[in-house]
TrEMBL record:
<keyword id="KW-0547">Nucleotide-binding</keyword>
<dbReference type="GO" id="GO:0005524">
    <property type="term" value="F:ATP binding"/>
</dbReference>
<dbReference type="InterPro" id="IPR027417">
    <property type="entry name" value="P-loop_NTPase"/>
</dbReference>
<comment type="similarity">
    <text>Belongs to the helicase family. UvrD subfamily.</text>
</comment>
<feature type="domain" description="UvrD-like helicase ATP-binding">
    <location>
        <begin position="13"/>
        <end position="290"/>
    </location>
</feature>
<dbReference type="InterPro" id="IPR014016">
    <property type="entry name" value="UvrD-like_ATP-bd"/>
</dbReference>
<dbReference type="Pfam" id="PF13361">
    <property type="entry name" value="UvrD_C"/>
</dbReference>
<protein>
    <recommendedName>
        <fullName>DNA 3'-5' helicase</fullName>
        <ecNumber>5.6.2.4</ecNumber>
    </recommendedName>
</protein>
<keyword id="KW-0413">Isomerase</keyword>
<feature type="binding site">
    <location>
        <begin position="34"/>
        <end position="41"/>
    </location>
    <ligand>
        <name>ATP</name>
    </ligand>
</feature>
<dbReference type="GO" id="GO:0003677">
    <property type="term" value="F:DNA binding"/>
</dbReference>
<dbReference type="GO" id="GO:0016787">
    <property type="term" value="F:hydrolase activity"/>
</dbReference>
<keyword id="KW-0347">Helicase</keyword>
<dbReference type="GO" id="GO:0000725">
    <property type="term" value="P:recombinational repair"/>
</dbReference>
<dbReference type="GO" id="GO:0043138">
    <property type="term" value="F:3'-5' DNA helicase activity"/>
</dbReference>
<dbReference type="Pfam" id="PF00580">
    <property type="entry name" value="UvrD-helicase"/>
</dbReference>
<dbReference type="InterPro" id="IPR013986">
    <property type="entry name" value="DExx_box_DNA_helicase_dom_sf"/>
</dbReference>
Length: 594
């Protein structure tokens, strides 16, 4: 089969599942409501490939908005596997990058956004200082600027239409604080992350020609993880799809909404799915989890959804581990007793197939310490990781490091893929064939000259930054934040012992096959493992003490997301005297179900 039609082969997997097939065959606005492991990403990617081939004529294309860069990568990789060629017809990225690269950067001036031509994305330090100045001017109250900043940003994301009375009436102080803060940013000639969708929305709302231009370029808009994307994206969808004529293909799961605390509003997905002009399809089979884990997950959620495991799925097991002592004692139990027992049960199980999930990064410190003491390698995806795992630039550099540490000999990763991903990262600079040739030469020369696993990581990164990243980022404003991550990491290495971490250590970080995964529950979303250990599932930790109703519901959904990451085994570890109400409830219900 030619590459162009690979998706038709992949579509055969969907045929036996009536709901997936209907989504694949849909012709109008379609919303796919899909529980964990139900194949929503698989269906979405196959449908994207089909729409691109059959419904949209080149040079028009389609845009797919995802929750974060990690999800964008996942979709890009699946599209690659389906043979979707990398022309400029497909946009895959976050709502922020869509707003910035497709609307604000190209049209800021003609859409009358009042930004200087050379506006920049503010660094974290500039944002913090701008907020402190705004805080001093508005003098909102006794708490710290940091706590006001969190609330102000949530307010900004929630009330996106400043023309409506709610903007000022709901909380006049927060409205004033936001406006003063934004004015401070503009005085520096900068915008911040949250500005991007808001500015894009304003540009679209005020300029009919811009909506027309966007619909001409992207007649189809796909949205993944809709429940987590918030009000700005929803308003954009309403304007572009239900007024300007883009066709919508949206995917999400209200039960997996875990970002309400920063302004996501799962109800928007529900409302979308209830519209008369939308075909709503629900997927009911969970292809990931064993049948007992599917049952447990519904108990954990506290709602019956009628999901079932696929035919022939193994049963799966839930284990409860109440343990006396401190959380450090429980971490040592996990590493010293539980892990060997798990590995004993599953011959050949790689550590990368096991994940330890917890509510906050500090709980991960306990496990990381215990693992380090026992000589077990870990890979962390939480706020205390060496750097944010979501950073595309860092992930690309990791892969470059793998190449320098022997990949050049084994062909894993292939240089062609490094060039491809680099071109994608720096796409505003490496725009045409000539640019690609120059970029390829630059990359090959640099990596070839740095093939030494024992080299100092600090020096290697500093060289990569000076030779490749900085010159590129100076011309790609969208990557300013990514480079900040890199610069901060280089500074951290320098403040420690610059020679202490070798390139070989860094190249191993990205390859988790033999490393135990440590992650917050939030960062585990969308991932899957054979065995999941939920660590510190105590009342007061999940949920936190005295939760508000909304917080309690969101904590429950977080618990649900954790359980549904597992294919074969779920382990719950908690203090003997303080099990979370979710754990106690689950144990009782499972006992009752026999
Ligand atoms: N029709 C199908 N037949 C067989 N396997 C399938 C089918 N649909 C999906 N799967 C498999 O089920 C697993 C989960 O699919 P996918 O990652 O697309 O789920 P998801 O709905 O995005 O999950 P989550 O919301 O939990 O992240 C994958 O391994 C996928 O290949």
């Amino acid at each position: 089969m030619s590459d162009r039609f690979l998706y038709r082969g992949a579509a055969e997997d969907l045929r036996a599942n009536d709901a997936q097939w209907r989504a694949y065959e849909s012709t109008g606005h379609c919303v796919l409501l899909a529980g964990p492991g139900s194949g929503k990403t698989k269906t979405l990617a196959t449908k994207l490939a089909r729409m691109l081939d059959e419904d949209v004529e080149a040079p028009r294309g389609l845009a797919c908005i995802t929750y974060n860069n990690e999800c964008a990568r996942e979709i890009e990789q699946r599209l690659d596997a389906l043979g979707v060629s990398r022309s400029g017809r497909v946009f895959v990225g976050t709502v922020h990058s869509f707003s910035l690269t497709q609307i604000v950067l190209p049209y800021a001036r003609s859409a009358g956004l009042g930004l200087p031509d050379d506006f920049e994305v503010a660094t974290e330090q500039q944002q913090r200082q701008a907020f402190e100045r705004a805080y001093n001017r508005v003098a909102p109250g006794p708490q710290t600027p940091a706590s006001w900043r969190f609330r102000a940003n949530r307010y900004r994301r929630t009330y996106v239409n400043r023309g409506r009375p709610e903007w000022r009436e709901t909380d006049a102080t927060l409205a004033a604080l936001v406006e003063t803060y934004e004015a401070e940013l503009r005085a520096l000639g900068t915008v911040d992350f949250d500005d991007m969708p808001l500015l894009a929305l304003r540009a679209l709302a005020e300029n009919g020609w811009l909506r027309t231009a966007l619909v001409a370029k992207y007649p189809i808009l796909a949205v993944d993880e809709y429940q987590d994307l918030g009000t700005a994206l929803h308003s954009m969808v309403l304007g572009l799809c239900f007024r300007a004529g883009m066709r919508l293909f949206a995917v999400g799961d209200v039960d997996q909404s875990i970002y309400g605390f920063i302004g996501a509003a799962p109800d928007l997905l529900r409302r979308l799915s209830e519209r008369d002009d939308v075909e709503t399809i629900r997927l009911g089979i969970n292809y990931r989890c064993g049948s007992r884990i599917v049952t447990a997950s519904e108990y954990a959620l506290g709602e019956a959804r009628g999901y079932r495991a696929s035919d022939g799925a193994p049963e799966g097991t839930i284990y409860f581990h109440p343990k006396a002592g401190t959380s450090a004692d429980r971490a040592r139990f996990l590493v010293g007793e539980l892990l060997p027992a798990i590995q004993g049960r599953h011959a050949g199980l790689r550590l990368g197939e096991v994940a330890v999930l917890y509510a906050t990064a500090s709980m991960g410190d306990e496990v990381a310490d215990a693992a380090a003491a026992a000589g077990i390698a870990t890979v962390r995806t939480d706020g205390n990781a060496l750097y944010p795992r979501g950073s595309r630039l860092m992930r690309w550099l990791e892969q470059c490091a793998v190449w320098c540490c022997g990949g050049w000999r084994t062909g894993r990763p292939r240089m062609a893929n490094l060039v491809e991903e680099g071109c994608r990262l720096f796409r505003d600079v490496v725009a045409d064939e000539d640019g690609r040739v120059v970029f390829r030469r630059l990359l090959v020369e640099n990596l070839w000259a740095h093939r030494d696993a024992a080299a100092s990581l600090h020096d290697w990164l500093a060289d990569m930054d000076a030779e490749i990243v900085r010159p590129m980022v100076e011309r790609v404003r969208t990557l300013a934040e990514e480079r900040e991550t890199l610069v901060a990491f280089i500074a951290r290495l320098h403040d420690g012992d610059p020679g202490a971490m070798a390139l070989g250590d860094f190249s191993g970080i990205g390859i988790g096959a033999d490393r135990l995964n440590l992650s917050t529950l939030h960062s585990a979303k969308g991932r899957e493992f054979d065995v999941v250990v939920l660590f510190e599932m105590d009342e007061g930790k999940l949920p936190r003490n005295n939760p508000l109703q909304d917080e309690l519901r969101e904590a429950r959904r977080l618990f649900y997301v954790g359980i549904t990451r597992a294919r074969k085994e779920v382990h719950l570890i908690y203090g003997m005297q303080s099990p979370s109400r979710f754990v106690a409830d689950l144990e009782q219900r499972l006992a009752g179900s026999g």
